Amino acid sequence: MDSLLKVQVIPNGPLKVEGMLEVELPDGTVETKEKTTFLCRCGHSSRKPYCDGTHRKMDFQG
Ligand code: FES
Fold it and tell me: N or C: at which end does the chain have fewer Cβ atoms within 10 angstroms?
């Protein structure tokens, strides 16, 4: 089951994705992530779609 992705919803924070995945960005470029990826869930990251920690400053609840 090595190919099975694990997605964990971090309380008041990002989605933690463990496993290999490809992220297609709005400009069409594709980034390959091989281990752990944190995806922004609060909408305030300056590195979308990735989390940059801004959710803490924004006191994101969810
Ligand atoms: S969830 Fe971390 S910056 Fe949005």
Answer: N
How many angstroms separate the CA atoms of 12 and 9, rounded? 9
Pocket test for ligand 1, best of 9, 36, 39, 42 (most atoms within 8 A of CB): 42
- Partners of residue 21 on adjacent β-strands: 33
Give which of 47, 28, 46 is closest to 37, Cα–Cα.
47
Q: What is the pLDDT of residue 2?
A: 61
The residue type at 22: E
Q: Which atom of ligand 1 is nearest to the CA of 41?
A: 1
Continuous segment of H or E residues that includes residue 55: helix 54-57
Q: What is this structure's pTM?
A: 0.91
